[in-house]
Amino acid sequence: GAVVSQHPSWVICKSGTSVKIECRSLDFQATTMFWYRQFPKQSLMLMATSNEGSKATYEQGVEKDKFLINHASLTLSTLTVTSAHPEDSSFYICSASPLERPVTQYFGPGTRLLVL
Amino acid sequence: QKEVEQDPGPLSVPEGAIVSLNCTYSNSAFQYFMWYRQYSRKGPELLMYTYSSGNKEDGRFTAQVDKSSKYISLFIRDSQPSDSATYLCAMSDLNRDDKIIFGKGTRLHILP
Q: Is the per-residue pLDDT at A24 higher than 90?
């Protein structure tokens, strides 16, 4: 149980294009979903917290207009990197907290983004 | 002082040894404690979840929480090369909108 999927697992795009990453909780409903970014050999950096049906809460320094988050249902959240630039290349990981066990996060496998 | 401190390692131990991984924290309000394992280029995987103080065992893994010392540990018995990964401690209370605070992770290498 507690499986979270992400799609795509990796993506290469040209500078200036937008990329959408999907995060789904497959076997549970999530009160909250989180988006993280991770650079090589570094720890997770929380970008934003999203709750179903409400606006995401962004961490300090994260541009909300660049990283658009939509949390359409209790099992789906999307992150759109708009007008991507090479410095946006990173490993993006989502996580989800089950309704019955808040404070616990189950992570997706991550999406590797390379912007050329 | 950072809320959660974790030695980044790397920690190298021979196969079969007992591994001890630790974190300290400063916020006495933390009640939920977790350990995650992350393989290279993968998302973190929840290994252990503990509420409040005490021990919890699952197979070769044992998690300990000592709230009086603000210290948590993860022990791995009979370590195997497949245990080589980065281990992240994480913790939270109920006042953070489900956010959890991660340690920076300890890189563990099990030598065959």
A: yes
